[in-house]
Amino acid sequence: PNVTEYVYLSYIDAAASDQVTAIAVDASGNAYVAGWTANPNFPVSGGGALGGAAAGGSDTRSFVAKLDSRGFVVFSVLLGGSASSRALGIALTPQGQIVVSGIATSKGFPSTPGAYSVTDSTDQWFLLELDAGASKVLFSATGIGGSSIRFDAAGNIYMAGSSVGTNYPTTPGAFQTTFTQGHYCF
């Protein structure tokens, strides 16, 4: 509480090609981290076979890992099948499922039947929900997502982020339904 010492310091992977971009913590003190790796040997343990290894270089894969309250890895899984991607946001549902969002950087990011999806996932958002053990995908959507994810008491998902294109979906009656490109000064 006084920020004078580490509770724990842990490594998931020793590769310099890993990026942790988001963290969520549950009521038991378990930490859920999301990010991406270009390491073909990224350590996968527990959970399910939800994504293939990166080829290295610019080929990246999203990952989710759970660390217990002592910093020990409970599971570490890759996401997105064989599609390149970078996870940017993570949140936990009130029931303990894991919701991850990010950018798919190649074609073929998987989506589940009935979920919102775009034909080509290249440079498009993805949003997926995993069961609490990260052993299966409950839903996966492409073309929608955000880097900041929250839930309300009813379980509705709220997302915020920046658009990676001019075709991000909007709902009728929204404040702004089309993307206007312009020049911005800071």
Describe the model.
With 186 residues, the protein is mainly β. 0% of the residues lie in helices and 35% in strands. The chain is built from no helices and ten strands. It has strands at 18-25, 31-37, 61-67, 73-79, 85-92, 98-104, 124-130, 137-142, 148-151, 157-160. The protein has a four-stranded antiparallel β-sheet with strand order 1-2-3-4, with no helix packed on it. It has a four-stranded antiparallel β-sheet with strand order 5-6-7-8, with no helix packed on it. A hairpin with a 5-residue loop joins β9 and β10 (157-160). It is globular and about 50 Å long. It starts with 17 loop residues before the first strand and ends in a 26-residue tail after the last strand.
End-to-end CA span = 37 Å
Order of helices and strands: EEEEEEEEEE
Number of helices: 0
Give the rounded overall mean pLDDT. 89
Bin the strand percentage. Answer: 25-35%
Radius of gyration: 17 Å
The secondary structure category is mainly beta
Q: Quick one: biggest sheet?
A: 4 strands, antiparallel
Per the principal axes of the C-alpha atoms, what is the gross shape?
A: globular
Query: How much helical structure, as a percent, in the residues?
Result: under 10%
Flag low-confidence runs.
Answer: none
| Major β-sheet strand ordering | 1-2-3-4
Number of strands: 10
